[in-house]
Design brief:
Elements: E1 7-10, E2 13-16, H1 17-26, H2 40-45, H3 48-81, H4 88-134, H5 137-142, H6 145-187, H7 189-236, H8 238-243, H9 247-300, H10 305-317, H11 319-346, E3 368-375, E4 384-391, E5 396-401, H12 407-414, E6 422-427, E7 430-431, H13 437-442, E8 444-447, H14 458-462, H15 472-481, H16 485-488, H17 508-522, E9 526-530, H18 538-549, E10 555-559, H19 563-566, E11 571-576, E12 579-584, H20 586-592, H21 595-604, H22 606-609
Parallel strand pairs: 5-10, 5-11, 8-9, 9-10
Antiparallel strand pairs: 1-2, 3-4, 3-6, 6-7, 11-12
Helix pairs in contact: 3-4, 3-6, 3-10, 4-6, 6-7, 6-10, 6-11, 7-9, 7-11, 9-10, 9-11, 15-17
C-alpha cells in the first residue's frame, strides 16, 4: 500500500515530493542543465535507444527502396531485351519482398521517432513549466499570462513538430540523397552531376527562404502571444467587460490583433509561395534532363536501356527530397523562432533563491522584526522607506494606510516574494534571507488581498497549504471558524463541490471566507490577513475577529482599511507614502488626532470620536 503523499517547497513552489522522488528515481540518468539555455540535443540523447532503432529502420527502408531500380534494370536488360526468363520469378519476388520490407521498417521508423518525440516534447514542456514556476514574482510583473502560455503551449508545439516529423524527414532526405547519389554514380558518374547541381540550387534557395522566413516567424510568435493575452484577459474579465458594455471595443481590439496575426501568416505564405515553385520546377526538369542525356549515352553505346531505365527511376526518386526542402525550411524557421523565445525564458533566473547553507530553526516562535527596511522595484520610487517594528510572538500588529501606501508590500517582503532593497527582516532573530524558502513560507498562513481559488473542490482549495496534513475534520473546523460552513453545507455536494476558475459562481464574501478557512486550517505560527474582510458584512467580520482572538499563540498581522479590523491590535502602524506616520494602540492613535483619527471619524462619525 502506498504511503501518504508529502510536499515541500522547491524554488518557492509546492511540489509533491512523493511523486517527484519516484520520478527522480526513474529519471536519475536524465538530469539536464536547464539554465542559462536549454539544448534540444540533450533531450534527444535521453531517447538515444529509440532513435537508434528508428534510424536503423530508416536506413534499411531507404536501402530497400534503392534496390527497386536495380531490379528494373535486370528485368529490362535480361528479361525483356535478353529474353532470359530464368530469374524472372526471383526478380518479381524481390519486388514483392522490397514492398513488404519497406512496410515493416517504415512502421518501425515512424513508431520509434514518434514515440521519442512525444517523450521529448512532454519533458520539454514539463521542464519549461517547472522553470516558469521557479521564477519569482518580478518575472510575472514584467510578463503577462498570455505570453507565458504561448511559450509553454504553442512554441513547444512548434519545436515538437520540428524534432518529430520534420527532423525524421530531414534525416530521411539526407540518407535517401546520399544512397541514391551513390547508386547513380555507380551507373554513370557524368549524369550524376545533373541531380547534384539541381540539389545545390535548391539548397541555395532554401537558405535564402529561411533567412526571409526567420524574421516573419519571430513576428508571428510575438503577435501570437499578444493575441493569447487579449483573449485570456477578455475571457477572464468577461463580467467586467459586460458590466461596462465594452463588448464592441474588446471585439475591435481582438480583431485588430487577429488581423495582424493573419497578415503575418499571409506574409509567411507569400514568402513560401514565392520560392516553392522553383523547387517544383527543378524537381520536374531533372528527370527530363536525365532521360535526354541517358538517351544520348544509350545511342552512343555507353549505357544499356536497363541502365537508363534505372537511372530515370533514381532521378524520379530524388525529386521528392528537392520538393521537401522548401517545406522543411519553412517548418524549421518556425521552430527556430520558438526556440529563441523559449530560451529567453530560460535565460531568466530567479532573484529569490535558496541560501547555499540555510539556517534551520527547530521551533519557530513567530517573532518578526523589520529593521530600517526600504523597498523599491526597478525604475520606481521607493515603495517602502525606513520601516521598523518589532512584533513579538503571539502579538497582533495592525497596519492601515491609504491605497498605494505600501501595506501589501510588507506582506510580500515577509514571505520573500520580493527581497528588501535595504534593511533587514528577521524571523526569531534570524535574517529571513538566511532561512530556507520552504521553512519560511510554510510557517506563514496568508490570506491575500486578491483571493485566488483554483478550479477544484472547496475541500481541495482549503487544504492547499498542507494537503497531506489537513484532514476532513480540520477542513470543516476551519470553515466553521471562517464563517464559511453555513453556505458550504447548503450546496449539493458540500465540501466536494467543484467551484469554477477563480471561484466563479461565488460571491466576493464567500471567496474571502474560503480563503480565510484555507489559512486557518494550515495552523502556522504566523497569520497574515491582507484586507481579507473587505467583502464581509460587519456581523461576519466580528465573528471572525472573535475567532482570531482565540489564536493566542499565533503572531498576527492584520492589514485593513476598516478601523474595526485593527482596533484590538497590540500595536497599529499607519503608513503614508511608504513611511510610518503614526504608531500606537487604538486609544493612543485617537488621542493624537492624526491620520488614524481622521479615518475613524470618516467611518464612525464625529460623535463616535467624541
Amino acid at each position: 500500500m502506498q504511503g501518504p503523499e508529502t510536499f515541500q517547497y522547491r524554488g518557492g513552489i509546492i511540489i509533491n515530493t512523493t511523486e517527484t522522488k519516484q520520478e527522480d528515481k526513474k529519471n536519475k540518468k536524465e538530469k539536464i542543465k536547464l539554465n542559462p539555455k536549454f539544448k534540444i540535443k540533450e533531450y534527444m540523447l535521453r531517447n538515444w535507444r529509440k532513435l537508434l532503432v528508428g534510424f536503423s529502420a530508416l536506413i534499411i527502408s531507404v536501402s530497400l527502396d534503392m534496390l527497386s531500380p536495380q531490379i528494373i534494370m535486370h528485368i529490362v536488360d535480361d528479361v525483356i531485351l535478353g529474353r532470359d526468363y530464368t530469374n524472372v520469378t526471383i526478380l518479381l519476388a524481390g519486388i514483392m519482398l522490397i514492398g513488404v520490407g519497406r512496410f515493416l521498417f517504415q512502421y518501425i521508423k515512424e513508431y520509434m521517432f514518434d514515440k521519442s518525440s512525444v517523450d521529448v516534447a512532454m519533458k520539454l514542456r514539463r521542464d519549461l513549466f517547472v522553470h516558469v514556476e521557479s521564477l519569482d514574482t518580478q518575472f510575472f510583473d514584467k510578463n503577462n499570462t498570455g505570453e507565458v502560455m504561448a511559450r509553454v503551449k504553442d512554441d513547444v508545439d512548434r519545436i515538437w513538430d520540428a524534432i518529430s516529423y520534420v527532423s525524421m524527414l530531414l534525416i530521411e532526405v539526407t540518407v535517401h540523397t546520399v544512397i541514391i547519389l551513390f547508386c547513380m554514380a555507380k551507373l554513370n558518374l557524368p549524369m550524376t552531376l545533373i541531380p547534384i547541381i539541381a540539389m545545390g540550387i535548391c539548397g541555395y534557395l532554401a537558405v535564402i527562404m529561411e533567412k526571409k522566413l526567420d524574421k516573419v516567424y519571430d513576428d508571428i510568435s510575438e503577435e501570437n502571444a499578444v493575441l493569447n493575452t487579449t483573449a485570456e484577459e477578455n475571457i477572464g474579465g468577461v463580467r467586467t467587460v459586460k458590466a461596462f458594455a465594452r463588448e464592441k471595443y474588446e471585439i475591435k481590439k481582438f480583431k485588430e490583433h487577429n488581423d495582424k496575426y493573419c497578415e503575418l501568416n499571409i506574409k509567411e505564405t507569400e514568402t513560401f509561395v514565392k520560392y516553392y515553385p522553383y523547387f517544383q520546377f527543378i524537381s520536374k526538369i531533372v528527370p527530363f534532363l536525365v532521360l535526354l542525356l541517358g538517351g544520348y549515352f544509350f545511342m552512343k553505346g555507353n549505357m544499356t536501356l536497363g541502365m537508363v531505365s534505372a537511372f530515370v527511376a533514381y532521378s524520379n526518386n530524388i525529386v521528392w527530397p528537392m520538393e521537401m526542402l522548401g517545406w522543411l525550411t519553412n517548418s524549421f524557421a518556425s521552430a527556430i523562432a520558438s526556440y529563441k523565445k523559449i530560451n529567453k525564458i530560460y535565460e531568466t533566473e530567479p532573484t529569490i533563491t535558496e541560501p547555499a547553507d540555510p539556517v534551520v530553526l527547530e521551533n519557530i516562535r513567530g517573532d518578526i522584526e523589520f529593521d530600517n527596511v526600504s523597498f523599491h522595484k526597478e525604475d520606481m520610487h521607493n515603495i517602502l522607506e525606513g520601516i521598523s517594528f518589532n512584533l513579538k510572538s503571539g502579538k497582533t500588529l495592525g497596519i492601515m494606510g491609504a491605497t498605494g501606501s505600501g501595506k501589501t508590500s510588507i506582506v510580500s517582503l515577509i514571505s520573500r516574494l520580493y527581497d528588501a532593497t535595504d534593511g533587514t527582516i528577521r524571523l526569531d532573530g534570524v535574517d529571513i534571507r538566511e532561512l530556507g524558502l520552504h521553512q519560511l513560507r510554510s510557517s506563514i498562513s496568508l490570506v491575500m488581498q486578491d483571493v485566488f481559488l483554483f478550479s477544484d473542490t472547496i475541500s481541495e482549495n482549503i487544504r492547499l497549504g498542507d494537503r497531506p496534513g489537513i484532514n476532513e475534520q480540520t477542513v470543516k473546523e476551519a470553515s466553521r471558524k471562517a464563517c464559511a460552513s453555513d453556505f458550504i453545507e447548503k450546496m449539493d455536494d458540500k465540501y466536494e463541490t467543484v467551484i469554477g476558475e477563480r471561484g466563479v459562481g461565488l460571491s466576493g464574501g464567500q471567496k474571502q471566507r474560503i480563503s480565510i478557512a484555507r489559512a486557518l486550517s494550515k495552523n502556522c505560527p504566523i497569520l497574515i490577513m491582507d484586507d481579507s474582510t473587505s467583502a464581509l458584512d460587519m456581523e461576519t467580520e466580528r465573528e471572525i475577529q472573535k475567532t482570531l482572538d482565540e489564536f493566542n499563540g499565533t503572531t498576527k498581522i492584520v492589514i485593513a482599511h476598516r478601523i474595526s479590523a485593527v482596533k484590538n491590535a497590540d500595536e497599529i502602524i499607519v503608513l503614508d507614502e511608504g513611511k510610518i506616520k503614526e504608531r500606537g494602540t487604538h486609544d493612543e492613535l485617537l488621542a493624537k488626532k492624526g491620520l488614524y483619527y481622521e479615518t475613524y471619524v470618516s467611518q464612525y462619525g464625529m460623535s463616535a470620536a467624541c
